[in-house]
Amino acid sequence: MQKQELVYQETKFTLDTYFLDPIADYETQIERPLVIICPGGAFKFQSDREAQPIALKFNAEGMHAVVLHYQLIDGQHSVYPLALQELATTLNWLKTQQAKHINLKKVILIGFSAGSHVVADFNSIMLDPEQREKIYPAELEVEPAANILGYPVIDMTLGWPREEEWAMKISPDLYYWQAQEHLTKNGKPTFIWQTVTDATVPVMNAIIYAQKMDMLGIPYEMHLFGSGSHGLSLATYVTQNPGQEDNLNIYDAEWWKLCVNWLKLQEVLPKF
């Protein structure tokens, strides 16, 4: 893993990059898909459980991976619109990294919990030129091919955050609160998973985004598991916080296989 510092206007932010090395045996190098990971953490921090372990899983499937340390709540900035501008800057930066053999037509965004809100808002706002130009006047040179949302925050009026004061710190502009409200037919195919027993982010968040995608005719796949807590990450021992039994769920861990199958369906990964 290597750190990469980028700048949007005068704001610096960091990427953790997990680029696969070229295989010396190959006469022609493969241009590999890439995933940009937005971990959760309630916009207070970014969970390591949803960063490196996820990046390495994608590496094992033959994909490059980048963890985006997007804007959090601090004393100077709210999350939005800066997090969206940072994600757009990251996508455009990929175009300068072609020595890494990236397939720019197969860039995927994945978010967990609060990080899913960043991805969903990007899919809704930043892929619609009329909405995007209001906050990011530069051209978006690389567009994601698809999205993955894990136990997502979609609408900040649907139970998370519980305090309106915290939502106002995330964004004093209510425009950014409800990702589904700004989704257009420009949105990309999306894989969504969550548990119906999630006590932190109500499952209606996932449902309402899938419903809007369905209305617009945007391809999606959604899996709602019958049990499980919030913040599962891989739901295996790999991402278990020691002693936290609710981090483990053999049934919910199937989301990873389902997600890989979906990426094959989207022709991001080869079928064989």
Automatic annotation (TrEMBL):
Pfam families xrefs: BD-FAE
InterPro entries linked: AB_hydrolase_fold (IPR029058), BD-FAE-like_dom (IPR049492), GDXG_lipolytic_enzyme (IPR050300)
Highest taxon in the source lineage: Bacteria
GO molecular function, one term: hydrolase activity
Keyword field: Hydrolase
Residues annotated as domain BD-FAE-like: 27-158
PANTHER family with a match to the protein in the record: AB HYDROLASE SUPERFAMILY PROTEIN C4A8.06C, PEPTIDASE S9 PROLYL OLIGOPEPTIDASE CATALYTIC DOMAIN-CONTAINING PROTEIN
Name by which UniProt lists this protein: Putative lipase esterase (Putative)
Native species: Companilactobacillus kimchiensis
